[in-house]
Specification:
Blueprint (H helix, E strand, L loop, with lengths): L11 H34 L3 E2 L1 H9 L6 H16 L4 E5 L4 E5 L4 E6 L1 H4 L9 E4 L4
Parallel strand pairs: 1-4, 2-5
Antiparallel strand pairs: 2-3, 3-4
Length: about 130
């Protein structure tokens, strides 16, 4: 069955409003998704992970890190990241740390006793970390 519509029955404004509300809902979802991704990225930016290897080395070598030490390392990672570093050697008063800047993960920790006559490879930068 075919229905015929008269011009009075077709309201262009109603059609446009319906299309705009669909676009608006889509834009809201897209904006929420972008915000969620940005928030997650910012929260992860402040994180610093320790690989199981690094955790074992810290324990084995008796290196204990305070909250201030961790903050100092985070700051050094942020500095290295701002300069485009991918893998950095971060020199700290308690130890040297090889860090994957992209993953924000400490790969290993080397204390003074194990630094003598050692070569650190696979890094593209070095950062000297200082406690505030």
């Amino acid at each position: 069955m075919i229905h015929h519509m008269t011009p009075g029955q077709l309201n262009v404004n109603q059609v446009e409003q319906k299309q705009n509300s669909v676009k608006s809902a889509s834009n809201v979802k897209q904006t929420q998704h972008q915000f969620k991704n940005l928030l997650s990225e910012k929260l992860n930016q402040d994180q610093l992970k320790f690989s199981s290897h690094a955790s074992k080395r810290l324990a084995m070598r008796g290196i204990e890190l305070s909250t201030g030490d961790i903050e100092s390392l985070k700051h050094a990672v942020n500095l290295a990241e701002s300069k485009g570093s991918k893998d950095a050697l971060i020199m700290h008063e308690k130890a040297a740390f090889v860090v994957s800047i992209r993953n924000r993960t400490v790969i290993t920790a080397i204390d003074d006793m194990n630094m003598k006559d050692r070569i650190v490879t696979n890094i593209d930068s070095a950062v000297i970390a200082r406690n505030s």
